Structure formats: structure tokens, C-alpha cells
Amino acid sequence: MNKIDDMTLMAYVDGELDPVTCAEVETLLDQDGELRHKIRGLRESTALVRSAFNHVLYEPLPGFDASRERVVVPLSDPTEKSRKPVRVGWSRILPLAASLAALVIGASLGHYLTMRDVDRELRNVGLSLSLADEAVVQEALMRGLEKELSGTRIVWNNPATGHRGGIVPIRTFQSETGQFCREFTEFRQVAGRVYDQGGIACRSADGVWKVRARYLPENGGV
After folding, report:
1. Kindly report the CA angle at 165 between 72 and 139, in degrees rounded to 5?
2. Could you report the per-residue pLDDT of 45-67, keeping only the tens digit for each?
3. Which range marks the domain in which residue 46 is found?
4. One domain, residues 105 and 206
5. Residue 38, SS3?
6. Does residue 220 fall inside a structural domain?
7. 90-104 pLDDT tens trace
8. CB 201: neighbour CB atoms within 10 A?
9. Is residue 222 one of the residues assigned to a domain?
10. Are residues 136 and 207 part of one domain?
11. What are φ and ψ of residue 3, in 5° steps?
12. pTM score
């Protein structure tokens, strides 16, 4: 490894690189003072945003509880400090695509709703967004995934509809195929109601982030 891109640096700071890649990065750090300075800056920035949003970051990641009878999902509205983690029932979750089954977060965590299921749930509770809203959300999501550190909140607002929301990247990792992926939480405020969800997006070779899975609490996130 002769050069480290920003995604690799973010994954290193998040502690999500595999041992081999981590060792390669640390070898380069020993040789490159400018790179060490950049890593220090990233760590300091990450520490600041994590201290500000630790109610989001330090909840458990999606995973099985001790009884393995439910999945605990850390979705919370960043505007509220005391909301409890919501739970996803087995009847409401579907397998993630096989290409994501061996992500670093673990094969047992690969149980999520498909995009179609998410869209249907949003329509059912009257929280689907207009095309104009979706364009604003997409821009905020792509910007946050590409440029922001884990724990940074990216807020979007559409004055035309009065809808608003926020996105928080919470971890960066690599799939078994080498794609960089990021997990994120999201909240939307539509018609005075707050809706929570989370997801995983992966970066394609052309630099475009594509959402591969989303997860919802069993009450639809409301």
C-alpha cells in the first residue's frame, strides 16, 4: 500500500479495518509525518462529535440480544436525548443481499428490510416523502457518507414542504469484496411526526454511494 485514500483513513480511525490492512496503514504512519498529523486531526474531530452525539453512537449496534429472540436497533432522533432503542421483531425483517452477508459487522446482523418494504411502511403511516423531499434527502445522505466523520449529524430541510430530518453516519467498514460501506441512522419529521430508521450504504467504484439495506423498528419508526 503506497497511498491511503480518505475512506481507508476513516475506517482506520473508526477501528473497522481488517488486521492486514490496519498493519499496512500503521507501517505507512511510521514513515509519513504528514499522514500521522492527518490521523491526529481526524481522531480529534471524531472525539468531539462523539462527545456531542454519544446518545446515538454508544447505543448497541444492530445485533441479537442474549435470548436471540429479537434484534436491538439503535435508532434515535438526535433532537431527543432520552429515547430508548427500538426493537425489530422477527416477523418484520428480511435477509440482506448475499453480497453483504459477510460484512465486518457480522453475518448474524445481516437481516434487514428491503427498499420496497421500507417504502411500503412509510406509505402505510403517511410518512412518505415527495420527490422534491427525496432529492434533498439524497443530497444530504451522499454528502454525509462521502465527506463527514462518523458521528457528524447532517441536517436537511425542505422549506417548500416543511419537512426536515437528519442523517448520522455511525461506522465505516469494508465488505468482503473490498467495498467501503457505512452504517447510518436517520430521522425524518413529516407532518409533525418523527420517524426513525437506519441503513447501510456502500461506495461503488465510480464514487457513488448506494443504500444496500435499511432497518425499521417494529412500530414503523414512529
Report:
1. 105
2. 554 444 433 444 334 434 333 33
3. 6-52
4. yes
5. helix
6. no
7. 233 233 332 333 333
8. 21
9. no
10. yes
11. -145, 140
12. 0.51
